[in-house]
Amino acid sequence: MEDQNSSSIDAAEATLLRRLRAGGPSALADVFSTYQERLHRMVSFRLDPRVRGRIDAADVLQEAYLRISRRLVDFLDQPSVSFFVWVRQQTLQVLIDMQRTQFREARSPQREIRLATPGDSAATSLSIACRLVDAIQSPSQIVSRNEALHRVREALESMNPIDREVLALRHFEQLGNAEVAQILNLSPTAASNRYVRAAGRLADIVSQVRADTSGQPKDAP
């Protein structure tokens, strides 16, 4: 069954690449529009909270589209990953560059700001922690948000870094297993196994944070 699915995906990808080669800019615009929701979700998830008010996801996607337009011919000459995975890589790089610009402008000789690159261990932990704490805590618990963030980040940092990134890609970016495998250079089976393990660890973390914020033991009903 997995081989059949892989063959279907390969055939669909080949058709897409032929369309891009033959259709030019209009084909790229059409295909990119079908990716926008997923790309917007990725940018929103990976965006550093410290510059969230200064970088708009729509601006990132617009700049990414221009970058992709300039590099499309080179990609089509020798594609090494699926088109979506490549588009995501280009969009992530645009986000990284825009964040670096913002941090460089905010930096002063008296104050050095450390930039966590989207996709690195620290940035992934922070992004996941923010999402989890916001989902778990009620407005009345907002006073303890920093403490909850600290605890969640500590728990996430104890995970295997690849497992943590698999979790981010599957659970928060909502990518498919085949896409995750390509991004992380894993076999589909290895990516799937890592996700199962990471999802179990995530459930434990959520349970513990809820117990901590409610004041009840972890196993309480």
TrEMBL record:
It comes from the Bacteria. Keywords: Sigma factor, Transcription, Transcription regulation. GO terms for molecular function: sigma factor activity. Transmembrane segments: none annotated. Residues 15-195 form the RNA polymerase sigma-70 ECF-like HTH domain. Pfam families: Sigma70_ECF. GO terms for biological process: DNA-templated transcription initiation. PANTHER family: RNA POLYMERASE ECF-TYPE SIGMA FACTO (PTHR43133), SIMILAR TO RNA POLYMERASE SIGMA-E FACTOR (PTHR43133:SF39). Belongs to the sigma-70 factor family. ECF subfamily. This is RNA polymerase sigma factor.
